[in-house]
Write a structure and sequence with these properties.
- The chain is of the alpha/beta class.
- It folds into 3 domains: 3-116, HprK N-terminal domain-like (Udp-n-acetylmuramoylalanyl-d-glutamate--2,6- Diaminopimelate Ligase, Chain: A, domain 1); 133-288, Reverse transcriptase/Diguanylate cyclase domain (Alpha-Beta Plaits, 2-Layer Sandwich); 300-389, Orthogonal Bundle (Arc Repressor Mutant, subunit A).
- The protein has 15 helices and 13 strands.
- It has helices at 5-16, 63-75, 96-105, 118-147, 153-160, 182-186, 189-199, 224-241, 261-278, 290-295, 300-321, 325-334, 339-346, 350-362, 371-389; strands at residues 3-4, 19-22, 30-31, 33-36, 50-54, 80-85, 109-113, 169-176, 206-210, 215-220, 248-251, 255-256, 282-284.
- Strands 8, 9, 10, 11, 12 and 13 form a 6-stranded mixed sheet that branches. The protein has a 5-stranded mixed sheet with strand order 2-7-6-5-4, with helices on both faces. The protein has a two-stranded antiparallel ribbon with strand order 1-3.
- Helix 3 links the parallel strand 6 and strand 7 (109-113).
- Helix 4 (118-147) crosses helix 5, helix 7 (189-199) runs antiparallel to helix 8 (224-241) and helix 13 (339-346) crosses helix 14.
- The two termini are 48 Å apart.
- The relative contact order is 0.08.
Length: 401
């Protein structure tokens, strides 16, 4: 969750006599901290999402100073500026150029009269920030607990109180970066602020769940297209902020309630792994075809045993003779028993392919004229591929040809 600058403004404007004079388009920005600044050269210490307060004590009453100040602060991803007018800066010092700058960038600019103490407003806002941070941590932990598959009635109750009903439909999307990049990014508050701020524009409940080395998105909606919109919003923001960074995404099928989040995370991560194998940036679990059935097998030992049962004759033959008959068999099954297609794909003569198929029938006992046998063998190849992609194959298992 995050505090929304516009909500905070509406709730406290009367008490602190705040007046919004420009940048109203940015009121939906999240506010993560309050920072009192009088020198724009200190802007490098900012992490993004701060509401800045200034008296302009070093300005000398210069409108040009305020414009320079704004340029530095907006460059650091801050969410707005309160000018404490009446002592060092007057309302008349705020030029049209300053107003235009804030309006063009959707950067809220507020005035607060001098007699309002900065201590009072910062204390109020800090208290709200701390409460929101605590609630966000609780929600994040609740989602992580449910995604781990543990029974968590308290987590379900907490999420229900925060716009995530227990029995509503959900989608879950898992994101992955290249090895070594995710932990660094997930420790970067600017990065997280970019993602959270983009989700504020989604019209249905979403939550970005983070852990030490990964993150996933939970969307409360019944339509897959809506979840896709939220996923695309995240991906576009990442691509724009970090050009060249690869972000793989896997999206689950529809989940019936919060108790299905664990299976949803498994679906999303399976889709992500298959997408990585197929070199696809976004992969939906619903589009995995036969892999969906394989993923429904809870015990990978069942799949391993099936692969061993079906493919051990050809695998053993290949090991013994240093050959690649398994690849020939797989191509034969995948290409509708076309000898010509197998020959072209394996760069072999048709006679070589026919000879290999003859040996498979006579030596290995494969009844390749039987549709049932061929289906069983092709299923075994698909299961073997699935185990390899998802990392569930035994280390000693031979990789698919």
């Amino acid at each position: 969750m995050a505090l929304i600058l516009g909500d905070l403004y509406e709730e406290t404007r009367a008490r602190f006599q705040l007046t919004l004079i420009a940048g109203a388009a940015g009121l939906r920005s999240p506010m993560r901290w309050v920072y009192v600044a009088e020198d724009y050269t200190t802007s490098d210490f900012l992490r993004g999402g701060e509401l800045i307060i200034t008296t302009g004590v070093t300005s000398g009453g210069s409108a040009e100073w305020l414009l320079r100040f704004l340029r530095h602060m907006t460059a650091q991803g801050t969410c707005g500026l309160i000018v404490n007018v009446g002592q060092y800066l007057q309302e008349s010092d705020i030029s049209q150029e300053v107003l235009d700058f804030c309006n063009q960038r959707g950067f809220p600019l507020f005035l607060m009269p001098w007699h309002i103490h900065i201590y009072d407003i910062t204390r109020e806002y800090y208290n709200r920030i701390f409460l929101d941070a605590r609630r966000s941590e609780e929600i994040n932990r609740a989602f992580l607990a449910l995604a781990s598959g543990r029974e968590q009635p308290e987590a379900i109750r907490l999420l229900g109180e925060n716009h995530f009903p227990p029995n509503a439909p959900y989608y879950l999307a898992s994101f992955r970066f290249p090895a070594g990049q995710a932990p660094k990014l997930l420790d970067d508050e600017r990065f997280l602020n970019l993602l959270f701020s983009r989700l504020l524009h989604v019209s249905f409940p979403c939550y970005l769940v983070t852990s030490s080395n990964s993150f996933f998105l939970v969307c409360q909606h019944s339509e897959p297209a809506a979840a896709d919109d939220a996923v695309n919003a995240i991906r576009v923001r990442i691509t724009k902020a970090y050009p060249g960074l690869t972000c793989l995404t896997g999206v689950s099928g529809q989940l019936r309630g919060l108790t299905a989040l664990a299976s949803g995370l498994e679906q999303a991560e399976t889709a992500l792994l298959v997408g990585e194998h197929r070199q696809l940036p976004v992969t939906h679990y619903e589009n995995l075809g036969f892999f969906k059935l394989l993923g429904a097998v809870s015990d990978p030992d069942v799949l391993r045993a099936y692969v061993e049962e079906q493919l051990s004759p050809v695998r053993e033959y290949d090991r013994k003779h240093q050959s690649d008959f398994a690849r020939t068999l797989r191509l034969y099954l995948e290409n509708n028993h076309s000898i010509q297609a197998v020959a072209e794909l394996s760069f072999c003569h048709r006679n070589t392919v026919n000879h290999r198929l003859h040996l498979m029938r006579e030596v290995m006992g494969y009844q390749l004229d039987s549709p049932e046998v061929c289906f069983s063998l092709l299923t075994a190849f698909r299961a073997e591929e699935y185990l390899q992609i998802t990392g569930k194959a035994r280390s000693e298992q031979v990789s698919p040809s």
